[in-house]
Amino acid sequence: MQCLFQESANPMIHIARKIKRLIAAIVEWFYQPFRKIIPAETFRYGFTGGLNTTLDIFLYWLFYEIILQKEILDLGFVAISPHIAAFIIVFPFTFVSGFLMAKHIAFFESILKSKKQLLRYALTVAGAIFLNYIFLKLFVEVLSLSAVIAKVITTVLVVTYSYLLQRYFTFQTGKIRRNNKK
User: Fold this and answer.
1) Each residue of 142-175: pLDDT tens digit?
2) DSSP state of 79
3) 86: which of 32, 64, 139, 175 fits an S-S bond (Cβ 3.0–4.6 Å)?
4) How does residue 181 score in pLDDT terms, banded at 50, 70 and 90?
């Protein structure tokens, strides 16, 4: 299986490499003031995760407000509420962009095969979706917290879960660092 950024005559590969270099340069520029207090990999993960979250929110808004116009999406055999339809439509885009930025920018030192990384990334994302659901149910319906406060707490917990799993399971770069220090 050819890696997305390997040498190729394909113009899409050339564009992808340019985008990767541009994002990496932007991340590096923003990292400079934090160099002494945050490990580079952690900063890259936070930056690319924030970028992907921004893309997710923008695309969600675009589909929900502009394309679906807050209307139910009727597929004939099932009707989907506009907020769920927007989520379903946007998810594949941000899943792919999140994986590519994690693989090629945040955790580029990983030596695992791409196919293994993608499968593990999918499992990690599925776990994050499940945890979001469980924590929101727990905090709002059992503990009677405000939905917004519950979402903030849930986000902190799920982002921590995602980072640790991506570092030590999906891409295994945490193991690389530990082994190099011995």
Assistant:
1) 999 888 898 889 989 999 999 999 999 999 998 7
2) E
3) 64
4) low
Distance CA 133, CA 149 (A): 15
Question: Alpha-carbon dihedral of residues 61, 65, 71, 74, nearest 10 degrees?
Answer: -50
Tell me the pLDDT band of 14, cut-offs 50, 70 and 90. confident
The neighbouring-strand residues paired with 80 are 73
**44 and 105 in contact (C-beta within 8 Å)?**
yes
Instruction: Output the pLDDT for position 179.
Output: 53
Length of the chain: 182
pLDDT at 1: 45
Tokens representing 83?
């907020």
How far is the C-alpha of 49 from the C-alpha of 58, rounded, in Å? 14
Distances (CA, A) of 35 to 30, 31, 159: 9, 6, 21
Q: Are 110 and 3 in contact (CB under 8 A)?
A: no
Cβ neighbours for 6, distance < 8 A, ≥ 6 positions apart: 13
Q: Is-contact 182 136, C-beta < 8 A?
A: no
Residues 110, 172: contact at Cβ < 8 Å? yes
